[in-house]
What we know:
Elements: H1 7-10, H2 12-16, E1 44-48, H3 66-78, E2 82-88, H4 109-119, H5 121-133, E3 137-141, H6 151-157, E4 162-163, E5 173-174, E6 182-185, H7 212-226, H8 246-264, E7 276-277, E8 286-287, E9 295-296, E10 303-304, H9 315-321, H10 330-335, H11 340-352, E11 361-364, E12 371-376, E13 382-387, E14 403-408, E15 418-424, E16 431-438
Helix pairs in contact: 3-5, 4-6
Amino acid sequence: MKNPTRIAVLSLIVLCVTLFSSCTDDAVDHTIGAFNNGGNERNMIVVMSDLHLGADLTYAECSKNLGSLEKLLKQIKAAPNVKELVIAGDMLDEWFVPANVDTYQGKDQSDFVKRIAATNKGVIDAFNSIIKEKKIRVTYVPGNHDLTITAANVERILPGIHQARDNEQGLGTYSPVNIPEIAIEHGHRYNFFCAPDPVSNQNIAPGTILPPGYFYTRIAVLHVMQEPATPADTPPVVTQNTLADASQSLMYVYWYVWSKALATYPIANKFDEKIIVTNVNGFNGNYAVNDILPYQTTPGGVIDVRFYKGIQDSWTQRQTLNHVAIPIPVSQAIANSGQASESEFQATNQYFLNPGSDKRMVIFGHTHDPKIIASTNYKAEKCIYANSGTWIDHNGVAPTTMSFVVITPQNATASSQTYVKLYNFQNEVITAMSQDSIRY
């Protein structure tokens, strides 16, 4: 087997926590405002994602940008041409919590969501103002950081919001009314570490769907809060299993990802300390890093793991349960899990190159990487992938944040095009970043 790629390590944390890169397009049309179609018709669709609203601003990813988000929402409400506002996942953040913090504070998810609403009152009030006015439809699609947040708990703080959900918890794909050619989803269903996992850990946490990215993020946030000068512990060495079967080779890569992540993001605790406080989605105890980290009792022997036992072998089953149309090889899924380019590839592969799909435009969130990419489908027709970016305060990869996408659908005129435009709201000024168009 080839040496495991470092890309699965150094950038996985940004898929679970933060990842972003900016883009520009010299051909951007600056003559018409972001929410102005040049006429009187209310037909524009605004897509934003990855707000990452938290219950505690001590560690929430979106804190400084809350005021700007509230202002933009008020502009959207006042815009006479906006028909719909879509939130494409990671709105309510249940993952970005330090490992040693009780997420629910001894209560339940309903109380946690109410605390998010109270902590982010201005933003939630702005959303509710749009919903109550009923001029603009507000649609929510779940992401991985709000994977287990139930529809009922979203409705409790945003009564009347439209929720685009699959039958399976934590997933959803949305096509705006009368525009079946467009698909909007968060994009996490294609990610090995972030897609719902209803297969693993059922003997430990019956009914859980939390994937390993959840624990990855909890540990990483603890690192951010502690900022230890030196690690209190280091991952034990694991070597390739001399049996070298496919399953064990994949488990070695899975261990490699974890070991490099723990070395890159050290914590001030020993790996056998029960520091990971759960009481979330079936887990009801305190757990150690060693519960998640693959191990080996004999050099060159069997590599085993307590949590997510057999995860390398159940990926095909997970994809079936998560309605992945075109199966992704497990080696590819693990190795590329930290790459924004993998999301871009899956948008093309699952939709544009899939003969069973009629989609011509796909909008994802998840990677925090705002961009617009044109390609062609299996019929050689032009298609567009766009990523709506994020609203978190800081991005370790690039200085741009507070991004969103605006879609202006085509009309019946033969020359009319469907435009997709990418903007950001940094310094509370709407700035065009990129645009493209197609006709379907």
